[in-house]
Amino acid sequence: MSTHTATSGISARPGANSTVLRSEFRLFLREPGALFGIAVFPPVLLVILGCIPAFRASDSGPDGLRLIDAYVPVTVLMPLIVAGLQAMAPVIAGYRERGILRRMSTTPVQPPALLGAQMAIHGIAAFLSSLLSLAIGRLAFDVRLPPQAFGYLLALVLSVVVGLSLGALVAAQARTQKVAGAIGSAVFFPSMFCAGVWLPVQAMPDGLARVVECTPFGAASQALSDAAAGDWPGWIHLAVLVVWAVLLSGAAARWFRWE
Length: 259
Prior knowledge:
Belongs to the ABC-2 integral membrane protein family. Its main location: membrane. It is found in: Cell membrane; Membrane. Keywords: Antibiotic resistance, Cell membrane, Membrane, Transmembrane, Transmembrane helix, Transport. By secondary structure, the protein is mainly α. The protein has one domain (3-255). Helices cover 77% and strands 0% of the residues. The chain has 12 helices and no strands. The two termini are 16 Å apart. The model is unreliable at 1-12 (pLDDT under 50).
């Protein structure tokens, strides 16, 4: 079937994309590993850290904050990294490996519909997990909600886009699910470091912090921390996020293979 015929089929079946979305959502719910990594692990990590007395002590963290205050933005970023690199990328690569993307090109539902559904599902799951970490921080450990709510939301949305774009780039190059998992793992740990999992960006030496803030999740961590402190996220950090989102998504679109 030609591309024209397949595209015409989409118009004839306007509900096809929503059917794909519902189907992918059901499959996503059947993946306990992805659900745990995105929705459970970051909030649980926050609870574990918050139960350590030293993390709740006054002035235990950078800039006079408690350590638990500094780690809330970190656990907000974690599901975005997991969603893109550990969950979405292997799924899409697995579809390519099994020929699902190629077979879809001969149906009324084009492969971009499946990719859109995957990005929407993982993006929403990561976003909700981030909100859950904020709620736990507030209710359990008296971490104040970001006073600069709009700036925080803007930084969070850009961070979601960056995380999914990075996952899409990995998926674009991986021929098999195992390869996607290997590449994702190789990128995962540096991303976690830049997000401040082992050491908050604010507590890093100045030279290292400047380098980290040029990375996607280093900039995201600093932007979220600024908004959490009541300031507007630094325009430089927001610009870094926008540039990375454009570069990563453009590279993913340029190099993506359906077969």
